[in-house]
Specification:
alpha+beta; two-stranded antiparallel ribbon; 7 strands; 43% helix; elongated; disordered N terminus
Amino acid sequence: MAKRKTFAVPVSSNAAALNAEIEKDVPMEKPQPLVPAYCSTCLGETRHRLIGRCSKAVDGDDGWYERTIYELVQCLGCENASLRRTYHDAAEPADLIEYFPPAASRRLPEWMAPRNWPPAAVPWPQIVGVLREVYAATFSGNNRVALMGTRAVIDLALTEQLGDIGGLNQKLREAKKRGWIGNIDYDIFRTVIDAGDAASHRAYNPDAKQLNLIVDTVEHLVELLYVLQPAAKEIAAGTPSRPPKQSKQ
């Protein structure tokens, strides 16, 4: 029977145990081994089927060593597949685990799917494209880059709606003047813009919780301008008007 290396237990941070796992050669099991792994679709750790595995070992004369294990895993729930990389070396006591595509910490809004794009929204693909880059930076832990991107999304959306009438703060004031956003919304967006400026000019690095709140805010603005506003007009057009009041005899 053909054999190949498989991996059915969590990676150990102990070098000797990791060496043993790398050298292990066992028959392909049916069904394939199950391992716990993070699922970006289910947004949590679930049971995965181990589809494939390969490993790499580096040993130096001075006692330095590196161990890397690559695993292709598939979630048993949603069937989403990803590549998991587990790295360990002599200087780091804990295993470094990464996923490709990067592990997602939030779901993308339904309205971002191409089938849900509003008709005749010319800049919409560009706005969605920048938002996707924000999500990619968020999932990769590049919080500063993601924060700068959220500011860019606000600027791009307001410029498309209002034209290039000045700086971002002026556009935000005009959006408030036109009634698109209220006083509370204005203060929130001002805070987001200030945070984006701080990331660009003062290396401000928000934590994951703060960044997700900021992304929530930017999603709300885009949905308001490009999804809810056109939907409200469509609903209004299809809503029967009230019949005229009958005059009293």
